Amino acid sequence: MTTPETELKALMLASQSGDAAAHRRLLERLSRHLRAYYKRKLASFGKGATEAEDLVQEALLAIHIQRHSYDPAELLTPWVHAIARYKLIDFLRRSRTSRADVPIDEADDIMANDDHVATENSYDIRRLIEKLPRNMQYAIGAVKLEGLSVAEAARRYRLSEPAIKVSIHRGLKALADLIAKEVKS
Q1: Which pTM does this prediction carry?
Q2: CA distance 75 to 57
Q3: Architecture of domain 1-117 in CATH?
Q4: Is the predicted pLDDT of residue 104 greater than 80, yes or no?
Q5: How far is 176 from 136, CA to CA, in rounded Å?
């Protein structure tokens, strides 16, 4: 009998070997797990499905970019959980969630320095972002890469806050599509 860990690990190994179909299945399977994880975690902070979906897309993008760093000798789910947790911590830091709102066992992690993203991966992300329409580039760059709030990004680019949110949401989906196309080729 196979376990979810075994199935996901097999998909990851096939993905690392260049199997685009396995990579798509891996991301689809992980997206369901990540969505449930983020909805559960964000509910305790009064955040909703939109923020959860954005985090799912961010985590999937990081998994795609970092897949070369996964060590096949290790379990996959703790590796995925670490990425998901870092994305959650980054989101909470960006949204300026009060330290009082954070469960005590996670408070230090949220305020810790974020040094888990390798420099070479930021080039890949920026290269992909450059393929997006300008408003999506501005919104994702300001909020997701620079850490500005939605309100700050809206003021900077003279757009409405809803326009920034929609641009981020659509931009993250478009990035996921670009990644899928790159994996196929």
Answers
A1: 0.58
A2: 22
A3: Orthogonal Bundle (1.10)
A4: no
A5: 13
